[in-house]
Amino acid sequence: MSKDTGDMMTFLEFEKPIAELEGKIRELRSFAGGAGQVDISSEVGQLETKLSKLLKETYAGLSPSQKIQVARHPERPHFQDIVGHLFEDFTPLAGDRAFGEDEALLGGLARFRGQACVVMGHEKGSDTESRIRHNFGMARPEGYRKAIRLMDMAERFNLPVLTLVDTSGAYPGVGAEERGQAEAIARSTDKCLQVGTPLVTCIVGEGGSGGAVAIAAANKVLMMEHAVYSVISPEGCASILWRTNEKAADAANALKITAQDLLNLGVIDGVVAEPLGGAHRDPSRAMNMLGDTLEDALRDMAGVSGDRLRELRREKFLAMGNAGL
Amino acid sequence: MSWLTNYVKPKLQKVLNARETPDNLWHKCKNCGQMIFQKEFIANQYVCAHCEHHDRVPPKDRFDALFDNANYTLLDLPKVKIDPLKFKDTKKYTDRLKAARASTGDEDAIKVGVGKIGGQEAVVGIQNFFFMGGSMGMALGEGIIAGAKEALRLGLPFVMHTASGGARMQEGILSLMQMPRTTVALQMLRDAGLPYIVVLTDPTTGGVSASYAMLGDIQIAEPGAMIAFSGPRVIEQTIREKLPDGFQRAEYLREHGMVDMVVHRHNMREELGKVLSLLMGGRNVKAAAE
């Protein structure tokens, strides 16, 4: 889907006109730089206005299947980027104490804007080697059991929990099944709903089915503006219901997977705005905006008792689907 | 249009091919291929008399076999919003629902009954695979929540029979949300000290297996039942190799520590009754002391 222009930036198919315009501006600049004293500021200015207008138009009208491409964009900030940018003293903790360590789901202790907390989330990796190490963000039972262990610890030491969701789904493999993938996901969801400290989730990229919900049954569930959250991948849905995965775009429309749709359905509690043109165009600004929203969410829950937090969380999920539809 | 394409088949064919026996007189076992007299097959609780293969059972037959003297009352389940996403694939979701309702006579893929199992009263939920593959949508979630609440109200154990291909895609994210929603219902039972038993029947996969189907205090499975998170086809596509024999079957799960026991359908009432009365035993002692 994406096309490398040889430049640092990866452009998506629908971003082609944007890429062309940016190329023109760059060319003009390098030409002016080479020729010396040619004044091009007005031309460049014009083109830049045109570019920002084009970006705004394109990104305001993204279709669900275009949103999926943005959510999967390789330069979109991932778990480790976000933790590196927004958290201090991140101390990754490894292992489920039963079988192994799963690097598809990372987590540990950290400090977020001065407050000690537990942070965890899926990591997809950023190059071939790290993608393989992180299993493309598809966690195995060990990952979910580590999440349970970390949530237990958070409760014991009265630390809030922040989870960042970015997975196409839990890993479908023989070993994962053998060691109880279903049970691990069920217990992790169970633990989310049980933990007696504030729990805030943000779907930062892809929220893929049970593998996402296992760490997303939170007091506050947020979604980045161009993230997606779905019960099944549109490709999978199309191949089952339409019997061809060429209908993935139709499935993406029908499934209602965008942050805006999910807010309307009352399934999520808020949308975190992204910089113009998506988080990958300005990752550091995108992460700052995420940080501010997470901070607000935690502030809202400060001083609320553990029992009350648990109660609020349960009531929220029980009410879901009964109101607002 | 030529006479070649306009050609009308002689009606005689219909007469010649007419079946002399009704469609449902015989049942062919899916496992061993033996022909079984349909009435006998049903009387045998849909278990093959030749190879003991456990076939899928409609909820009514299961209720009848499970409760003492087939005596139970069905719970009125809450109505839910129909087709919240206005979903349409090759067919409209509302049309699929209508067809499923017409063919099963049920509202959705779950029924809940209250009655005695081996003398111990319990609330029992049964998922119907014949209703859109037992798929988990809002109605199913509400049914489980209603069942758990009824158990809570009456101070009874809750027994859930699972049979499902997973989430109902036509309800999108709202079907996924039934995973945490049903989990909340089970936590209420747990807080009240009431047992929650799962009977896994064929098949139990996807989002259902990854929520209430795996959270039982005791996990019972029927012989040969397919129990999985990812179905075998998905896994085969991912790893590109053949899967081992018996993979993801009830016996395999028991071997891997995921279920407590595999129980023959003919022994289910007895086994459930025993387990329930043992689990409720402590509670009854406590109640007597107070």
Task: For this entry, give a set of tags.
A: 325 residues, alpha/beta, 2-enoyl-CoA Hydratase, Chain A, domain 1, two-stranded antiparallel sheet, 17% strand, globular, B: 290 residues, 2 domains, 7-stranded mixed β-sheet, 12 helices, 16% strand
How would the blueprint of this fold be written?
The complex is a heterodimer of chains A (325) and B (290).
Chain A (H helix, E strand, L loop, with lengths): L2 E2 L5 E2 L4 H20 L5 H20 L3 H8 L7 H8 E6 L12 E8 L2 E8 L5 H6 L7 H16 L4 E7 L6 H5 L2 H14 L4 E10 H5 L6 E5 L3 E3 L3 H9 L5 H8 L3 H6 L5 E3 L10 H19 L4 H14 L6
Parallel strand pairs in A: 5-6, 6-7, 7-8, 7-9, 8-10
Antiparallel strand pairs in A: 1-2, 3-4, 4-5
Helix pairs in contact in A: 1-2, 6-8, 10-11
Chain B lengths: L2 H4 L5 H6 L8 E3 L6 E3 H6 L15 H8 L5 E3 L18 H12 L5 E8 L2 E8 L10 H17 L3 E7 L7 H5 L1 H14 L4 E9 L1 H4 L8 E4 L10 H8 L10 H6 L5 E2 L5 H22 L1
Parallel strand pairs in B: 5-6, 6-7, 7-8, 8-9
Antiparallel strand pairs in B: 1-2, 3-4, 4-5
Structure report:
The complex is a heterodimer of chains A (325) and B (290). Chain A is an alpha/beta fold and 325 residues long. Chain A is 49% helix and 17% strand. The two termini of chain A are 35 Å apart. Chain B folds into two domains: 55 residues, no CATH class; 233 residues, 2-enoyl-CoA Hydratase, Chain A, domain 1. In chain B, strand 5, helix 6 and strand 6 form a beta-alpha-beta unit. Chains A and B meet through helix 7, helix 8, helix 9, helix 10 and helix 11 of A and helix 6, helix 7, helix 8, helix 9 and helix 10 of B.
Q: What's the rounded overall pLDDT mean of chain A?
A: 92
- Class of secondary structure makeup of chain B: alpha/beta
Estimated helix fraction of chain A: 40-55%
Which structural category do the helix and sheet elements of chain A fall into?
Answer: alpha/beta
H/E element string of chain A?
Answer: EEHHHHEEEHHEHHEHEEHHHEHH
Apparent shape of chain A:
globular
Order of helices and strands of chain B: HHEEHHEHEEHEHHEHEHHEH
Fraction of helical residues of chain B: 25-40%
Oligomer: heterodimer
> What is the CA–CA distance across the termini of chain B?
88 Å
CATH topology of the largest domain in chain B: 2-enoyl-CoA Hydratase, Chain A, domain 1
